[in-house]
Design a protein that fits this description.
With about 200 residues, the chain is of the alpha+beta class. It is built from 6 helices and 8 strands, in the order H-H-E-E-E-E-H-E-E-H-E-H-E-H.
C-alpha cells in the first residue's frame, strides 16, 4: 500500500501559532523544583503525581485522611470508618463543570448506591488554586450510572457519563464548600453561570 496525498478537511482543523520560547523556558524552569519533589517521594508518573496532589487536597478539606495510590478503587477513605470518597477534578475554564465517569462498570455504578460512598467535584483555577468543592451522596446517582452502563453495553460502546454540578446540587442535594472563594463570591458565581437559585441553602 502506498501513501496518499489527500485534501482532507481534518488538516484544516486547529489553530497553529509559533512556539513561544519564553513560555517554554519559564515553564521548564518552574518545573525543575517539582521534579525534585517527584524524586524525593518516588512519584515519577506525571499524571499520577498531579492527580494524587489534587485528590489529597480535596480529601483533606472533606476530612478524609487516606488516599488511594493505585489506579483502581475509590480515591480516598476515612481512617476511622468505612467511608469512601470518589473525587472528580474540573477546570474552572471548562464550559461545563461536570463530574465525568469514564469507562464505568456495573460494579462501579453500584458503589454509588451505597451509603458509604461520597462523590466530590473539585473546581480548580490554574494548576493549584482550588476554588470550591461540590460534594454529597445519593443512591439515584448509582442507578443512573447503572442504567447508562447497560445502555452502552447493549450498543457496544464505552460508558462515559457526565453529571453537572448544578444538577448534583439541585436534584441530588449536594453541598458546596468554598475554598479559595468567599461564600458570597461562590453564590454570585453560581447565579451568573446557572441562574438564580437558593444556592446559599447548599453551602457547607
Amino acid at each position: 500500500m502506498q501513501f496518499l496525498n489527500q485534501s482532507l478537511g481534518f488538516f484544516n482543523k486547529g489553530h497553529f501559532e509559533p512556539i513561544d520560547r519564553n513560555f517554554i523556558t519559564e515553564s521548564y524552569q518552574a518545573l525543575k523544583p517539582i521534579e525534585e519533589i517527584q524524586n524525593k517521594y518516588n512519584k515519577h508518573d506525571n499524571d499520577s503525581f498531579l492527580n494524587e496532589l489534587r485528590d489529597s487536597m480535596v480529601a483533606l478539606y472533606l476530612d478524609y485522611e487516606l488516599i488511594n495510590i493505585q489506579k483502581h478503587g475509590l480515591d480516598a477513605k476515612r481512617s476511622s470508618s468505612d467511608e469512601f470518597l470518589e473525587i472528580k477534578q474540573v477546570s474552572f475554564q471548562s464550559k461545563t463543570w461536570s463530574a465525568t465517569f469514564n469507562d464505568t462498570t456495573l460494579e462501579k455504578a453500584k458503589v454509588f448506591c451505597d451509603i458509604k460512598t461520597t462523590l466530590a467535584v473539585g473546581v480548580w483555577n490554574n494548576i493549584s488554586n482550588l476554588l470550591f468543592i461540590v460534594y454529597g451522596k445519593h443512591p439515584k446517582i448509582g442507578l443512573y450510572l447503572e442504567q447508562k452502563v447497560k445502555e452502552c453495553h447493549n450498543e457496544s460502546r464505552r460508558s462515559t457519563q457526565t453529571i453537572g454540578v448544578s444538577k448534583l446540587i439541585k436534584e441530588f442535594d449536594f453541598k458546596m464548600k468554598p475554598i479559595d472563594l468567599k461564600e458570597q463570591e461562590l453564590i454570585n458565581l453560581f447565579n451568573l453561570k446557572f441562574g438564580h437559585f437558593s444556592w446559599e441553602n447548599h453551602l457547607a
